[in-house]
Amino acid sequence: SIIMGRPASRRRRRAAIGILTAGVLLAALVITINSYLPQPVVPSMTWTRLLEWSGLSQTQLLPEGKMQVHFLNVGNADASLIQTRDHQMLIDAGEPSDGGMVVDYLKGQGVEELDYVVATHPDADHIGGLPDVLEAFPVGHVLMTYPREEDTPASYSYERLLTALLDQNIDVIEAVPGQTYELGEAFVDILGPADYFTESNNRSVVCRVTFGHRRFLLMGDAEKKAENALLETGTDLRADVLKVGHHGSRSSTGLAFLKAVSPSHAVISCGPGNRYGHPHPETLAVLQDSGVHTWRTDRDGAVVITTDGRQLTVGLEKGEEKTAA
User: Is the CB of residue 62 less than 8 Å from the CB of residue 73?
Assistant: First the structure.
């Protein structure tokens, strides 16, 4: 009877293993589908959250009291992610061809939704990748400037962005100087454009992010006309980190403006060997002469600056982490 019972016992074990395997596969399928939904049905049951709980994830949520600003490596385009523990803002998303990479980068940082997205101005190298982002993540609000009818771009990238905003039914707010938005423990002030300009670059939304005693000023593609308009307002422009306007072009970063900002660090988003010659030698010279430590995405890759409100730590995709006062 013992010998006769062995086949039945094996069949029961195989059946149990089969049921367990099927259950695991079904659970994995459900979690995967839930993870890829624009709005997960159960936010806590995504692969990102499960990996965080298990300690296996390399993209742990930031601890309380910390903020990171990521300057993505999107070639001669622009994309920046501001991240506190539970809150995220994306400023621009590169060219249309960068959209997928920006989405992957955000997911790699544990982003599941975005409180705010800023479209600084309608140029394709800033808004081109935003439709992919808007389709991939729930977005609370989009901030952008409203051009006059005669200045409305008739470009594919701008039309694609407007279509994505309508399709996703996302709340759009006109970015106006004087507005302040909370991002967890950080505050984002809209400083510009301080006047109306016909040029797209000068209509860039200018954001200053404050976290504790540290400030980051992000200029979009604002040129010297827009910088001078900011100076004329008398606004306190001081910042520890300056995201240099217009990829380091000589059209931006005037000496008077740089003195008013008085940054310790500058970040230039530019691509290696780009056809515009960015960053221009004149801009690099004025930064160097002013004693500003300059980081460049063409040379350093993605630049990630972490702060606790006092100290700044600079992490480089193509280099070692550096601590700065």
Answer: no
